[in-house]
Specification:
Layout: H1 15-33, H2 35-38, H3 55-71, H4 77-92, H5 97-105, H6 111-120, H7 127-136, H8 140-143, H9 149-162, H10 170-174, H11 190-203, H12 215-234, H13 238-249, H14 257-268, E1 297-299, E2 306-308, H15 313-347
Antiparallel strand pairs: 1-2
Helix pairs in contact: 1-4, 1-14, 1-15, 3-4, 3-6, 3-15, 5-6, 5-7, 6-9, 9-11, 11-13, 12-13, 12-14, 13-14, 13-15
Amino acid sequence: MTASVATAPGGTTGAALSVLPAVLRGALGWADAHRSGFVLPADVLEPHTEVNRTLKPLGELAQLCTTIRRSTAPGTPEHGTAGDLIKFAWDQVHAGDLLLELLRGEPFAAYPYEIYAAFAGHGLRSEGFERLAGTLSSTRGWAHTEQQANRELGLINSERRVGAAPHAEAGEVLARTWLGGLSEPWMFEGPSGYALTHTVFHITDWCCVPERMPADIDAYLRAWLPPWIDGCLESRQWDLTGELLAVAAALPGPPPTDLLDAAWPALATAQAPGGAVPETGPTVSPARTPHGDDPPQTVGPDGAGPEPDPYPFLACYHSTLVTAFAAALSLERLTTHRADTAATGAAV
């Protein structure tokens, strides 16, 4: 049984800050130790290659590490590791050339554009890609591509990052999303949960510009994130819990400290010694790994030696990256809030 976020808000004051540094260090260290899982295959441009197993993980690595780097202090190990991983991912796409080839082959597809925008958010640019993207984004077909509203918000944010004129007005698209409509909170379930988290990611530029969040959505999320996160923890939906905690850390104004203090220790219990976090279900103790099917060994978060890796890469890479992403955001917000509160108290 996990801690109840909704019924026992607050937990112990400072409980989140007591676990967040280790959670962030472990999750980011796992990603760094598993670079081989993000390496693109030689046939990545072939039609038979599965995007969800190749380009999608690499793009998520670049995107989430961009926010982690922006949320951590220069000179810290986490800041440096996030930067190194972004450079690694940029090398994998041949400084944008591979994405340009993808765009030439699939001019109707948004995913090469969105992956490129993750790098553009870090200041990495490709003149050739942006020249072709500028032409394509001015077409009628681009402006009228049919997609879900939260996906369209992702494209609008990508256009903003790349420097192109958005093809639609973000506020109008936001109003068509599950979150923008302030849907009945009891209608929350897995798909709507992921839709709302990504709606927040896109309107706040991956949680780095919280002031873009409308006041009514801020109030709605502050009211309903606690029971939603509580439900996710009870059902061991670790990946969605991490995304919801990133949303909580992206709220404008003071961070919801009671919620973060109650939820982060519970999520921390799902992290394996090597830093990995499974997407869903029971956590696996390294000692219970079946004999003869030993997973790769990785260096433990404290550098004390190898730790058994209990999950297949595709079963934990996203949830582990999301945990690092949410931890970096929460740590930055809570640390800043504590410092501001102390400064205000000293001034009084």
